[in-house]
Specification:
single chain, TIM Barrel, three-stranded parallel β-sheet
């Protein structure tokens, strides 16, 4: 097609590749301060944005949201969204009640102590509600979150490298920095997620032996959970404390009996400690299928969140709500919460493809662009 440069021409790529990360961040910062993401936020104001967080830190740290970053997020959200408890949103969707425009909810998975220490005071300061999903045996000090076991092993081994095969797939990694150790643990965890629960735990024991590291019976402070006293305090202050199973297994990999236990026992333990009904649920690692969703409903939960990326409409199933996992820096946060990524994906897969079609002419481009935006 004549007259239109290809979206990723060699000339453009050479310009981008000189300092690609720096250039991308500069462009994102410029788009944020000039309000370029605002039209996308407005275009998605009828959808429900549910954010998901995990770990927090007082200062900047890899793989955690710092106190300053979280404060920036809350400041932005309170200025541009109506933040509601997830339970209230679920009630409105279930009853067909109209929700306000620009609704958002905050969810935090797992129940680590750093949520209470870092994030909770900021939520109180900004008067923002949130939902904290906890694994009850984790709070009871009966178990680790299994993903942390692998992170502990790679962080504390004296071995120089890792070479392991799981489910006929291998992971080989050299331990050169703290980041390389964490990355290796995440690669192994991704494979462990494919195993039945008993095989996963056995694999972790074997790797502990191979790496020469003794796993403590209870998680060290770095990987520790909140207490029930803290859970009750937060629950009384507008933080919904809800279920994330008993031991945090990958639910599609469990037997029917295990699945039923993880669903019902966690809810019963929470209601015993909190003194009221609990009906919100989060699938560990977001993993679920039709069998798991059926068990969720049978256990008495009215709402459940996944890790599937996206915003929610009135047509989104209450047992399959989507969430957005934001990056810490504010420009990426504004981009991801605006829905820009979804529209950009439609443009990339739709408009660019149609733009390159042999029948496209300069006169038809405006029409193609409008049609593609309407599909977003």
């Amino acid at each position: 097609m004549q007259g239109f440069p290809r979206p990723f021409s060699p000339l453009v790529w050479r310009a981008r590749s000189k300092h690609p990360l720096m250039l991308k961040q500069t462009v994102l910062d410029l788009m944020r301060v000039t309000g370029a993401f605002a039209p996308f936020r407005v275009a998605n104001r009828s959808k429900v944005l549910i954010l998901t967080y995990h770990r927090f830190s007082a200062a900047e740290a890899d793989h955690k949201t710092s106190a300053q970053a979280f404060a920036d997020h809350l400041q932005y959200l309170t200025e541009h969204y109506r933040i509601l408890p997830l339970g209230q949103i679920a009630d409105c969707i279930a009853t067909g009640k109209t929700l306000p425009q620009g609704v958002a909810a905050l969810t935090i998975d797992d129940g680590y102590q750093d949520f209470y220490d870092v994030a909770y005071p900021l939520l109180l300061k900004h008067r923002v509600p949130a939902t904290l999903f906890v694994a009850t045996d984790f709070v009871d000090r009966k178990c680790w979150l299994w993903t942390d076991k692998m992170r502990y092993l790679t962080a504390h081994t004296a071995a120089a490298e890792l070479d392991v095969t799981i489910n006929e797939r291998s992971v080989k990694a050299a331990f050169t920095t703290a980041r390389s150790r964490h990355k290796a643990a995440n690669r192994v965890n991704a494979l462990l997620k494919t195993l039945p629960n008993e095989q996963k735990e056995e694999a972790l024991k074997q790797m502990a032996t191979t790496l020469g590291v003794l796993l403590p019976a209870a998680p060290p402070a770095e990987y520790g959970a909140i207490t029930w006293q803290q859970a009750r305090e937060m629950d009384n202050e507008g933080i919904e404390v809800a279920s994330h199973t008993v031991t945090h297994p990958i639910l599609p990999n469990t037997t029917n009996e295990q699945l039923r236990y993880e669903m019902t026992a966690s809810r019963a333990r929470l209601e015993e400690e909190l003194g009221h009904q609990v009906s919100l649920f989060c699938y560990p690692n977001g993993r679920q299928d039709a069998r798991v969703q059926q068990a969720t409903a049978q256990a008495g939960y009215r709402c459940a969140v996944t890790n599937q990326h996206g915003m929610n409409t009135l047509g989104t199933p209450l047992l399959g709500l989507q969430r957005v996992a934001p990056e810490p820096d504010l420009s990426h946060f504004v981009q991801s919460t605006s829905g820009f990524e979804e529209i950009k994906s439609v443009l990339r897969n739709g408009w660019y493809r149609r733009l390159a079609a042999p029948t496209t002419t300069a006169a038809t481009v405006p029409q193609l662009f409008t049609e593609t935006i309407n599909q977003a």
